[in-house]
Amino acid sequence: MNIIFKLLKYYFLLIAIFFIGRLLLFISYFNHFIDSDSNIYLSFLYGLKMDTIVASIILIIPTFMLTVMPRYFSNIIDKLLKIYFLVFSIFAIFIEVATFPFMAQYDSRPNYLFIEYLEYPKEVSSMIFADFKIELLIAFTIILTFCFLYLKKYKDSFVELFEINYFKRILLFLPLLIVLFIGIRSSFGHRPANISDAMYSSNRILNEVSKNSIYSIGYALYSSFKHSNKDIQKRYGNMSIDEAITRVEKRLKIEQGDAKYVLKRKEPTHFSKEKKKNIVIFIQESMGYQFVKAVGGEDGITPNFNSLANEGILFKQLYSNGTRSVRGIAGLTSGIFSIPGKGVVKRNKAQNGFSTIASLLKPYGYHSSFIYGGESRFDNMKSWFLGNGFDEIIDQEKFANPQFVGTWGVSDGDVVKKANEEYKKLYKDNQKFVSVIFSTSNHTPFDFPDGKIELVKGEAKKSVKNAVKYADYAIGEFIKSAKKEDYYKDTIFLIAADHNVRVYGEDIVPVDMFQIPGLILADGIKPQTYEKLATQPDLLATVLDLAGIETQNSIMGHSIFSDKKQNLNLMQFNDRYALRVDDKVAVLRPNTKPLSFLYKNKHLVKTSNDTELEKDLLAFIIVLNHVYENRLFK
Fold this sequence. Notes:
The chain has 21 helices and 17 strands. The chain has helices at about 1-30, 30-35, 40-60, 60-70, 75-105, 110-115, 120-130, 135-155, 165-185, 205-210, 215-225, 230-235, 240-250, 305-310, 325-335, 355-360, 380-385, 410-430, 465-485, 535-545, 610-630; strands spanning about 265, 280-285, 315-320, 365-370, 390-395, 405, 410, 435-440, 490-495, 515-520, 530-535, 550-555, 570-575, 575-580, 585-590, 595-600, 605. It has an 8-stranded mixed β-sheet with strand order 5-4-8-2-9-10-3-11, sandwiched between helices. Helix 1 (about 1-30) packs parallel to helix 5 and helix 15 packs parallel to helix 20 (about 535-545). By secondary structure, it is of the alpha/beta class.
């Protein structure tokens, strides 16, 4: 029995750590779910299930050592288990503390994003030391205090457990293993419990409080290795590929012209020109609509964008593909929605032969470039762009004597200056060009040079609003410089964000936080405001149309000048998808039934199931996975 009590003691230690973390989260985010229809206190009960799964997994090795290993190894096991429980306790404390800044940034417990950022230690460490000093201090203080108490005050020993008769100990192994198995499974149903069991409410924040951070990270790792995208229908639902393709083609009004490449068709231009236009796509890092007055946001943050909005085509209801840069990059340069799993920019089967604006325009003699102030290896951008038709990468190492260098690279001011110089040289050589510029300033810790903007009143210098204002300054400087050059009259400029600065909210999918600004500028263009829904693929199709270029492409959108243009958005939020058509929204999560909503006053209102819309959403997920897995996005 002493073995059972010993294991229970460490079970309750782990549960206590998880409970304290959940309680503090519950208090911190109480206002986000106080009006929820669900019993908010059940989050502790569902949370206990998640915590028990994690604690049971951790206790497997100690159970084996204490019941099966001979007495001869008692001293070694005593030391090993002391270190084992100390390490796991420290890890649990660290993850619980790290949950708070992660929640503040993403309104989510640590998940696959937490893992992905660890691939870039240089950038992440700089960001952490610049932005999260207090959180780091708290974490280390708690951990050091725990270590002191554990090592100096808590004189625990496992040696005496080996005084128990070996036969009695080994008889305990199977019963204890069964108990731990039940704890890990946490369900007597057909399927074991998983992270979906924590999602008992329609309030997303309440569901996040119910989760366990270690389980959330582990589940993200497990999903990435266990669930290949060939198993996508096991997660989201079953549908034949033929039905899925038919539904997507109908919803997007795509007339199939290629039996193999199911999205590929001929797209005519409505602006036929003898001399094709150059194209510049200026992607703005994390510029949400809420900062841009021209599309319904706050005044005084983006004066240059607001002014330029009167000179071009302004998109007032533009929504991003997802919440990560790789999703926006794919949408704006390839015209594809977000595929399940990692974005195509980072996926093996999309590293070559994947359609981009560069590969589409290469037959027309266009020189293509990607210009970025940071290290282009980040998010695998360099490999993806070069592998898919881009001729040149200009990143941080190619900037000679930049005026300012921050955590994420040279400033946007340096980037646009370099871009303008490159375009002047190309135009002088009679070389048509397509170029993608990606800004860096609006990213924590929000580094930008002094003296370029008047800081937003009441905001710290290193804040989102001031970073956005500096990014807007760079936009203004770029267009002002371009207008002085000959290439301006022969170039189409697209300015759009990759995603909003931070996608958050109580809704199961916070649709309003996918809204971003978009603007197309060109010499002689007729100013107008496009009020209907638009996607990032729609922007790419519109730019190609305005440039007078007819292509065979697989873009999952249409020019706003085409009668095929549809009033829809497809949004990916973590592992869930939302398809919006007008103000109807279908939402699909893994291993759960689809839901339908009406989008009213920037919130989702539950309504009866729209079966056809839900099936169309599933069709999009299946087709996106199909074209990626079979290399059909050409």
